[in-house]
Hints:
- The chain is mainly alpha-helical and 127 residues long.
- The chain has one domain (3-98).
- Helix content is 54%, strand content 0%.
- It contains three helices and no strands.
- The chain has helices spanning 3-34, 39-63, 88-98.
- α1 (3-34) packs antiparallel against α2 (39-63) and α2 (39-63) packs antiparallel against α3 (88-98).
- It is flat.
- The N and C termini lie far apart (64 Å).
Amino acid sequence: MTSAQQRFFSVDVSLGLRIDERQTRAALKLADALQAPDSGPMWRLIREALTPLEQLEAEFARAEYPPFDRWYHETWIRAGLQRNNPHRAYVELRAFIASDGRSRLQPPPGFGQPPPAAGANPPVRTP
């Protein structure tokens, strides 16, 4: 295979499969954590669930090559907590672990809305 063909299969074809595999593996660990008899094994499984998501983040970085730099980064269409953001599981699990399971991320105001057009009037807020 040529280098272009190898890149196509390693990035464009197999990355989607790896996204599914890594996120599924993390979800299965989290499902096991819900069944844990006490908090010790539960937190161990939660931390183990982070490993496949960290691997996926590294794979995203390798998949971004010119002219597709920042291809998998957040945009207003693929914002942080939207379901179509491939980083969402990683970001949410890290936040959950950092808060010792006490909080979850909240979407900012205007979440998922397109940016205002240049020169557009800002929305009027009434009390």
